[in-house]
Amino acid sequence: MIDVDGSNRGDVSINDALLAAEEAGLDLVEISPNAQPPVVKILDLGKLKYANQKKAAEARKNQKVIEIKEIKMRPNIDDHDYETKMKAVRRFFEEGDKVKLTLRFRGREMAHMELGMQLLNKVREETAAIAKVEAEPKLEGRQMMMVLAPR
Protein backbone atom coordinates (compact mmCIF):
# COMPACT_ATOMS: atom_id res chain seq x y z
CA MET A 1 0.00 0.00 0.00
CA ILE A 2 1.18 3.52 -0.82
CA ASP A 3 0.18 6.27 1.59
CA VAL A 4 -1.26 9.75 0.87
CA ASP A 5 2.21 11.38 0.93
CA GLY A 6 3.64 8.68 -1.37
CA SER A 7 5.46 6.62 1.25
CA ASN A 8 5.38 2.83 0.97
CA ARG A 9 3.59 1.18 3.89
CA GLY A 10 4.40 -2.38 2.77
CA ASP A 11 1.96 -5.32 2.93
CA VAL A 12 -1.26 -4.25 4.65
CA SER A 13 -4.54 -6.12 4.97
CA ILE A 14 -7.48 -4.90 2.89
CA ASN A 15 -9.46 -3.82 5.96
CA ASP A 16 -6.52 -1.77 7.33
CA ALA A 17 -6.01 -0.14 3.93
CA LEU A 18 -9.70 0.78 3.67
CA LEU A 19 -9.66 2.22 7.21
CA ALA A 20 -6.56 4.32 6.42
CA ALA A 21 -8.21 5.67 3.26
CA GLU A 22 -11.41 6.47 5.16
CA GLU A 23 -9.44 8.32 7.88
CA ALA A 24 -7.72 10.44 5.20
CA GLY A 25 -11.09 11.15 3.57
CA LEU A 26 -9.84 9.77 0.25
CA ASP A 27 -10.33 6.67 -1.92
CA LEU A 28 -8.37 3.42 -2.03
CA VAL A 29 -7.38 2.88 -5.67
CA GLU A 30 -5.83 -0.30 -7.06
CA ILE A 31 -2.82 0.82 -9.11
CA SER A 32 -1.47 -2.50 -10.40
CA PRO A 33 -3.85 -5.43 -9.86
CA ASN A 34 -1.57 -8.01 -11.52
CA ALA A 35 1.33 -7.48 -9.09
CA GLN A 36 1.87 -9.95 -6.27
CA PRO A 37 0.56 -8.61 -3.85
CA PRO A 38 -1.63 -6.01 -5.68
CA VAL A 39 -0.50 -2.40 -5.24
CA VAL A 40 -3.06 0.08 -3.89
CA LYS A 41 -2.76 3.80 -3.26
CA ILE A 42 -4.72 6.27 -1.16
CA LEU A 43 -5.73 9.22 -3.34
CA ASP A 44 -8.68 11.25 -4.63
CA LEU A 45 -10.26 9.20 -7.44
CA GLY A 46 -11.99 12.26 -8.92
CA LYS A 47 -8.65 14.07 -9.30
CA LEU A 48 -7.06 10.98 -10.86
CA LYS A 49 -9.86 10.65 -13.43
CA TYR A 50 -9.66 14.38 -14.20
CA ALA A 51 -5.87 14.20 -14.72
CA ASN A 52 -6.21 11.16 -17.02
CA GLN A 53 -8.94 12.93 -19.00
CA LYS A 54 -6.74 16.02 -19.42
CA LYS A 55 -3.79 13.89 -20.51
CA ALA A 56 -5.92 12.08 -23.12
CA ALA A 57 -7.29 15.39 -24.44
CA GLU A 58 -3.76 16.79 -24.76
CA ALA A 59 -2.63 13.67 -26.66
CA ARG A 60 -5.60 13.99 -29.05
CA LYS A 61 -4.86 17.67 -29.61
CA ASN A 62 -1.23 17.05 -30.53
CA GLN A 63 -1.75 14.18 -32.97
CA LYS A 64 -1.63 14.91 -36.70
CA VAL A 65 -4.33 13.41 -38.88
CA ILE A 66 -2.86 12.36 -42.23
CA GLU A 67 -5.17 13.20 -45.08
CA ILE A 68 -5.10 11.90 -48.63
CA LYS A 69 -5.14 14.76 -51.12
CA GLU A 70 -6.09 13.99 -54.71
CA ILE A 71 -4.53 15.53 -57.80
CA LYS A 72 -6.33 14.86 -61.08
CA MET A 73 -4.52 15.03 -64.41
CA ARG A 74 -4.97 14.03 -68.01
CA PRO A 75 -2.30 12.12 -69.97
CA ASN A 76 -1.64 14.98 -72.41
CA ILE A 77 -1.26 17.69 -69.74
CA ASP A 78 0.58 20.85 -70.78
CA ASP A 79 3.93 21.83 -69.18
CA HIS A 80 2.66 24.81 -67.21
CA ASP A 81 -0.38 22.92 -65.93
CA TYR A 82 1.91 20.07 -64.92
CA GLU A 83 4.22 22.44 -63.01
CA THR A 84 1.23 23.96 -61.20
CA LYS A 85 0.02 20.51 -60.15
CA MET A 86 3.54 19.55 -59.00
CA LYS A 87 3.75 22.71 -56.89
CA ALA A 88 0.53 21.63 -55.15
CA VAL A 89 1.92 18.10 -54.67
CA ARG A 90 5.07 19.48 -53.00
CA ARG A 91 2.96 21.71 -50.73
CA PHE A 92 0.86 18.69 -49.66
CA PHE A 93 4.02 16.74 -48.78
CA GLU A 94 5.31 19.66 -46.70
CA GLU A 95 2.03 19.59 -44.75
CA GLY A 96 2.57 15.86 -44.15
CA ASP A 97 -0.33 14.61 -46.27
CA LYS A 98 -0.42 11.71 -48.71
CA VAL A 99 -1.13 12.43 -52.37
CA LYS A 100 -3.26 10.32 -54.69
CA LEU A 101 -2.52 11.06 -58.35
CA THR A 102 -5.41 10.23 -60.64
CA LEU A 103 -4.98 10.15 -64.40
CA ARG A 104 -8.26 10.15 -66.30
CA PHE A 105 -8.35 8.76 -69.83
CA ARG A 106 -11.09 9.93 -72.18
CA GLY A 107 -12.11 8.58 -75.56
CA ARG A 108 -9.19 7.41 -77.71
CA GLU A 109 -6.66 8.20 -74.99
CA MET A 110 -7.34 4.65 -73.77
CA ALA A 111 -5.30 3.42 -76.74
CA HIS A 112 -2.20 5.22 -75.36
CA MET A 113 -1.83 3.95 -71.81
CA GLU A 114 1.96 4.28 -72.09
CA LEU A 115 1.58 8.09 -72.08
CA GLY A 116 -0.15 7.91 -68.71
CA MET A 117 2.49 5.56 -67.36
CA GLN A 118 5.26 7.88 -68.58
CA LEU A 119 3.59 10.82 -66.85
CA LEU A 120 3.25 8.96 -63.53
CA ASN A 121 6.88 7.80 -63.76
CA LYS A 122 7.93 11.40 -64.38
CA VAL A 123 6.04 12.47 -61.23
CA ARG A 124 7.68 9.60 -59.30
CA GLU A 125 11.18 10.69 -60.40
CA GLU A 126 10.57 14.36 -59.55
CA THR A 127 9.25 13.58 -56.06
CA ALA A 128 11.71 10.76 -55.28
CA ALA A 129 13.66 12.94 -52.81
CA ILE A 130 10.63 13.99 -50.76
CA ALA A 131 8.17 11.11 -51.24
CA LYS A 132 7.93 7.35 -51.57
CA VAL A 133 5.47 5.37 -53.66
CA GLU A 134 2.87 3.77 -51.42
CA ALA A 135 0.70 2.28 -54.18
CA GLU A 136 2.17 1.56 -57.60
CA PRO A 137 0.31 2.93 -60.64
CA LYS A 138 -2.67 0.74 -61.44
CA LEU A 139 -5.47 0.99 -63.96
CA GLU A 140 -9.07 0.94 -62.74
CA GLY A 141 -11.49 1.38 -65.59
CA ARG A 142 -10.63 4.64 -67.34
CA GLN A 143 -8.44 5.92 -64.49
CA MET A 144 -4.85 5.22 -63.57
CA MET A 145 -3.96 5.86 -59.92
CA MET A 146 -0.83 6.11 -57.82
CA VAL A 147 -0.47 7.03 -54.13
CA LEU A 148 2.58 8.84 -52.79
CA ALA A 149 3.46 9.35 -49.10
CA PRO A 150 5.94 11.86 -47.65
CA ARG A 151 9.30 10.51 -46.46
TrEMBL record:
GO terms for molecular function: ribosome binding; translation initiation factor activity. Residues 66-150 form the Translation initiation factor 3 C-terminal domain. The keyword Phosphoprotein does not apply. Keywords: Cytoplasm, Initiation factor, Protein biosynthesis. The keyword Cytoplasm applies. It is found in: Cytoplasm. GO terms for biological process: ribosome disassembly. One of its GO terms (cellular component) is membrane. Residues 2-59 form the Translation initiation factor 3 N-terminal domain. InterPro entries: T_IF-3_C_sf, T_IF-3_N_sf, Translation_initiation_fac_3, Translation_initiation_fac_3_C, Translation_initiation_fac_3_N. Monomer. IF-3 binds to the 30S ribosomal subunit and shifts the equilibrium between 70S ribosomes and their 50S and 30S subunits in favor of the free subunits, thus enhancing the availability of 30S subunits on which protein synthesis initiation begins. Belongs to the IF-3 family. This is Translation initiation factor IF-3. It comes from Aminobacter aganoensis.
